[in-house]
Amino acid sequence: MSHTIQFLQEARRRGLHIAPRGSNGLWVWPRSLMTNDLAAELRAHKRELITWLKGQHLLKQTLAGEFEGATARQRRTVRAKLAKLHSPLVRRALENLT
Q: For the residues of the chain, what is the DSSP string, one character each?
């Protein structure tokens, strides 16, 4: 995942914003800042980027307490997805799910 993080940092440094769009897409803006090299790298690592971005969103939701009142099955699903993330905030997010 370190390559994914490095790519996102470089894209942000250049002024690009990248977010998941639907189940298999990415939304990149402003398009005018996208170079051919960045577009090629984005296509090559699209799946990893989507996974990482969705994981970060889930982490933020969990830390914000958005899963309070969730069923045991929903909490298990969230825990399994969070366990795949490499972030120091995961432990705190998992504590929020108890």
A: -HHHHHHHHHHHHTT-EEEEETTTEEEEE-GGG--HHHHHHHHHTHHHHHHHHHHHHHHHHHHTTTTTT--HHHHHHHHHHHHT---TTHHHHHHHT-
89, burial (CB in 10 Å: exposed 0-12, middle 13-18, buried 19+): middle
- What CA–CA distance (Å, rounded) separates 92 from 48? 24
Structure tokens at 48: 């990893």
Among residues 48, 50, 79, which one has the least CA distance to residue 62?
79
Domain-wise residue ranges, the chain: 2-96
pLDDT tens string for the chain (98 positions)? 578 889 999 999 999 999 999 888 999 999 999 999 999 999 999 999 998 899 999 999 999 999 989 999 999 999 999 988 878 888 889 888 87
